[in-house]
Design a protein that fits this description.
Blueprint (H helix, E strand, L loop, with lengths): L2 H17 L4 E2 L9 E3 L4 E9 L5 E3 L1 H4 L8 E8 L4 H4 L5 H11 L2 E8 H11 L1 E2 L6 E4 L2 H9 L3 E3 L2 E3 L2 H5 L6 E6 L2 E6 L3 H10 L4
Parallel strand pairs: 3-5, 6-12
Antiparallel strand pairs: 1-2, 2-3, 4-8, 5-6, 7-8, 9-10, 11-12
Amino acid sequence: MSKVTDSIGLKYERHLEDSLSDLICTSSNLSVPDFYNSNLNFWIEAKVGNVLWGPRIKEYQVKGFRDLEAPVFYALGFHNFHDAGKRLIQKTERGRQSFLDKNMKILETYFISDELIEKIWDNEGRISANTGYSYCMVKKGILNNIFQNRKFKRSGVIISSPELFYGYNKEDFLVEQFDTGGVFLRKKDEAVVDYLKKSFFKL
Protein backbone atom coordinates (compact mmCIF):
# COMPACT_ATOMS: atom_id res chain seq x y z
CA MET A 1 0.00 0.00 0.00
CA SER A 2 1.03 3.58 -0.52
CA LYS A 3 1.97 5.90 2.32
CA VAL A 4 -1.25 7.81 1.68
CA THR A 5 -3.41 4.69 2.05
CA ASP A 6 -1.45 3.53 5.08
CA SER A 7 -1.79 6.90 6.78
CA ILE A 8 -5.53 7.12 6.17
CA GLY A 9 -5.91 3.59 7.51
CA LEU A 10 -3.93 4.50 10.62
CA LYS A 11 -6.08 7.58 11.15
CA TYR A 12 -9.19 5.41 10.95
CA GLU A 13 -7.78 2.89 13.42
CA ARG A 14 -7.12 5.74 15.86
CA HIS A 15 -10.71 6.89 15.32
CA LEU A 16 -12.00 3.46 16.34
CA GLU A 17 -9.72 3.25 19.35
CA ASP A 18 -10.90 6.66 20.59
CA SER A 19 -14.45 5.33 20.96
CA LEU A 20 -13.69 1.68 21.72
CA SER A 21 -10.90 2.03 24.23
CA ASP A 22 -10.95 -1.63 25.30
CA LEU A 23 -9.84 -2.87 21.88
CA ILE A 24 -6.47 -4.61 21.62
CA CYS A 25 -4.62 -3.53 18.48
CA THR A 26 -3.33 -6.49 16.46
CA SER A 27 -2.87 -4.78 13.08
CA SER A 28 0.82 -5.70 12.86
CA ASN A 29 -0.19 -9.38 12.48
CA LEU A 30 -1.74 -9.94 9.03
CA SER A 31 -3.02 -13.41 10.00
CA VAL A 32 -5.68 -11.87 12.27
CA PRO A 33 -7.95 -8.80 12.01
CA ASP A 34 -6.87 -5.37 13.24
CA PHE A 35 -8.45 -5.45 16.71
CA TYR A 36 -9.57 -7.91 19.36
CA ASN A 37 -12.02 -7.38 22.22
CA SER A 38 -11.32 -9.86 24.99
CA ASN A 39 -14.31 -8.83 27.10
CA LEU A 40 -16.89 -9.87 24.50
CA ASN A 41 -14.57 -12.13 22.47
CA PHE A 42 -14.73 -10.74 18.94
CA TRP A 43 -12.42 -9.38 16.25
CA ILE A 44 -12.73 -6.20 14.21
CA GLU A 45 -11.22 -5.72 10.76
CA ALA A 46 -11.02 -1.99 10.05
CA LYS A 47 -11.47 -0.78 6.47
CA VAL A 48 -11.95 2.82 5.37
CA GLY A 49 -12.47 4.50 2.02
CA ASN A 50 -13.60 7.71 0.45
CA VAL A 51 -17.35 8.19 0.61
CA LEU A 52 -17.45 8.35 -3.19
CA TRP A 53 -16.27 4.75 -3.66
CA GLY A 54 -15.99 3.06 -0.27
CA PRO A 55 -13.51 0.75 1.47
CA ARG A 56 -11.49 -1.73 -0.58
CA ILE A 57 -11.37 -5.24 0.89
CA LYS A 58 -8.67 -7.72 -0.13
CA GLU A 59 -9.12 -11.46 -0.47
CA TYR A 60 -7.05 -12.43 2.58
CA GLN A 61 -9.12 -10.04 4.70
CA VAL A 62 -12.16 -12.19 3.95
CA LYS A 63 -10.97 -15.74 3.39
CA GLY A 64 -7.96 -15.57 5.68
CA PHE A 65 -10.02 -15.11 8.85
CA ARG A 66 -12.51 -17.96 8.38
CA ASP A 67 -10.85 -20.33 10.83
CA LEU A 68 -10.80 -17.95 13.79
CA GLU A 69 -12.90 -19.18 16.70
CA ALA A 70 -14.15 -15.74 17.72
CA PRO A 71 -16.50 -13.90 15.31
CA VAL A 72 -15.07 -11.28 12.96
CA PHE A 73 -16.87 -7.99 12.37
CA TYR A 74 -15.90 -5.48 9.71
CA ALA A 75 -15.84 -1.79 10.64
CA LEU A 76 -16.38 -0.11 7.28
CA GLY A 77 -15.67 3.62 7.39
CA PHE A 78 -16.43 6.35 4.86
CA HIS A 79 -14.35 9.55 4.93
CA ASN A 80 -14.52 12.93 3.18
CA PHE A 81 -10.81 13.43 2.51
CA HIS A 82 -10.86 14.02 -1.25
CA ASP A 83 -7.79 14.26 -3.52
CA ALA A 84 -5.72 12.43 -0.92
CA GLY A 85 -2.77 11.80 -3.26
CA LYS A 86 -2.32 15.50 -3.90
CA ARG A 87 -2.97 16.73 -0.36
CA LEU A 88 -1.32 14.18 1.93
CA ILE A 89 2.28 14.98 0.98
CA GLN A 90 3.85 15.53 4.40
CA LYS A 91 7.20 13.78 4.79
CA THR A 92 6.62 12.17 8.18
CA GLU A 93 3.83 10.00 9.56
CA ARG A 94 3.38 12.41 12.42
CA GLY A 95 2.90 15.24 9.94
CA ARG A 96 0.41 13.24 7.89
CA GLN A 97 -1.60 12.27 10.96
CA SER A 98 -1.68 15.87 12.13
CA PHE A 99 -2.94 16.99 8.72
CA LEU A 100 -5.59 14.26 8.68
CA ASP A 101 -6.76 15.20 12.18
CA LYS A 102 -7.45 18.70 10.89
CA ASN A 103 -8.85 17.86 7.46
CA MET A 104 -10.38 14.38 7.41
CA LYS A 105 -13.70 13.40 8.93
CA ILE A 106 -15.15 9.92 9.24
CA LEU A 107 -18.71 10.49 8.05
CA GLU A 108 -20.11 7.03 8.77
CA THR A 109 -19.01 3.67 10.15
CA TYR A 110 -20.85 0.38 9.63
CA PHE A 111 -20.18 -2.74 11.69
CA ILE A 112 -20.96 -5.70 9.46
CA SER A 113 -21.06 -9.44 10.13
CA ASP A 114 -18.41 -11.54 8.39
CA GLU A 115 -21.25 -13.67 7.03
CA LEU A 116 -22.67 -10.72 5.09
CA ILE A 117 -19.22 -9.53 3.97
CA GLU A 118 -18.56 -12.95 2.43
CA LYS A 119 -21.84 -12.74 0.52
CA ILE A 120 -21.01 -9.23 -0.69
CA TRP A 121 -17.57 -10.51 -1.72
CA ASP A 122 -19.09 -13.39 -3.70
CA ASN A 123 -21.38 -11.04 -5.63
CA GLU A 124 -19.38 -7.81 -5.88
CA GLY A 125 -15.78 -9.04 -5.96
CA ARG A 126 -13.54 -8.11 -8.89
CA ILE A 127 -10.08 -8.94 -10.22
CA SER A 128 -7.73 -6.01 -10.76
CA ALA A 129 -6.66 -5.63 -14.39
CA ASN A 130 -3.36 -4.11 -13.22
CA THR A 131 -2.32 -6.54 -10.49
CA GLY A 132 -4.44 -9.63 -11.06
CA TYR A 133 -5.44 -9.62 -7.37
CA SER A 134 -9.03 -10.07 -6.17
CA TYR A 135 -10.70 -7.22 -4.30
CA CYS A 136 -14.12 -5.83 -3.43
CA MET A 137 -15.18 -2.20 -3.18
CA VAL A 138 -17.98 -1.88 -0.63
CA LYS A 139 -19.71 1.22 -1.91
CA LYS A 140 -22.09 3.22 0.23
CA GLY A 141 -24.89 2.35 -2.19
CA ILE A 142 -24.41 -1.37 -1.53
CA LEU A 143 -24.91 -0.88 2.20
CA ASN A 144 -27.88 1.45 1.67
CA ASN A 145 -29.55 -1.16 -0.55
CA ILE A 146 -29.06 -3.82 2.13
CA PHE A 147 -29.99 -1.72 5.16
CA GLN A 148 -33.06 -0.20 3.50
CA ASN A 149 -33.99 -3.39 1.62
CA ARG A 150 -34.46 -1.39 -1.59
CA LYS A 151 -34.40 -2.28 -5.27
CA PHE A 152 -31.27 -1.62 -7.33
CA LYS A 153 -29.78 -2.27 -10.75
CA ARG A 154 -26.96 -4.57 -11.84
CA SER A 155 -25.92 -4.62 -15.51
CA GLY A 156 -29.19 -2.94 -16.45
CA VAL A 157 -31.30 -5.53 -14.61
CA ILE A 158 -33.53 -4.46 -11.71
CA ILE A 159 -32.83 -6.46 -8.54
CA SER A 160 -36.01 -6.50 -6.48
CA SER A 161 -34.54 -8.02 -3.31
CA PRO A 162 -31.05 -7.56 -1.81
CA GLU A 163 -31.72 -10.67 0.31
CA LEU A 164 -32.21 -12.85 -2.75
CA PHE A 165 -29.35 -11.28 -4.69
CA TYR A 166 -26.75 -11.68 -1.93
CA GLY A 167 -28.30 -14.78 -0.35
CA TYR A 168 -28.99 -13.92 3.28
CA ASN A 169 -32.02 -13.91 5.57
CA LYS A 170 -32.48 -10.53 7.21
CA GLU A 171 -34.47 -12.17 10.00
CA ASP A 172 -31.23 -13.76 11.22
CA PHE A 173 -29.64 -10.36 11.90
CA LEU A 174 -29.98 -7.30 14.07
CA VAL A 175 -30.06 -4.38 11.65
CA GLU A 176 -30.02 -0.74 12.70
CA GLN A 177 -28.97 2.36 10.76
CA PHE A 178 -28.07 5.71 12.33
CA ASP A 179 -26.96 9.13 11.10
CA THR A 180 -23.31 8.11 11.54
CA GLY A 181 -23.50 4.50 10.36
CA GLY A 182 -25.11 1.30 11.51
CA VAL A 183 -24.84 -2.33 12.59
CA PHE A 184 -25.67 -5.52 10.71
CA LEU A 185 -24.74 -8.35 13.07
CA ARG A 186 -26.24 -11.73 13.90
CA LYS A 187 -28.98 -11.90 16.51
CA LYS A 188 -26.70 -14.03 18.68
CA ASP A 189 -24.32 -11.04 18.82
CA GLU A 190 -26.86 -8.82 20.58
CA ALA A 191 -24.40 -8.03 23.39
CA VAL A 192 -21.92 -6.68 20.83
CA VAL A 193 -24.64 -4.59 19.19
CA ASP A 194 -25.52 -3.05 22.57
CA TYR A 195 -21.84 -2.40 23.24
CA LEU A 196 -21.34 -0.65 19.89
CA LYS A 197 -24.48 1.44 20.28
CA LYS A 198 -23.38 2.69 23.69
CA SER A 199 -19.63 2.99 23.17
CA PHE A 200 -19.33 4.01 19.52
CA PHE A 201 -22.63 5.54 18.48
CA LYS A 202 -23.28 7.04 21.94
CA LEU A 203 -26.93 6.02 21.95
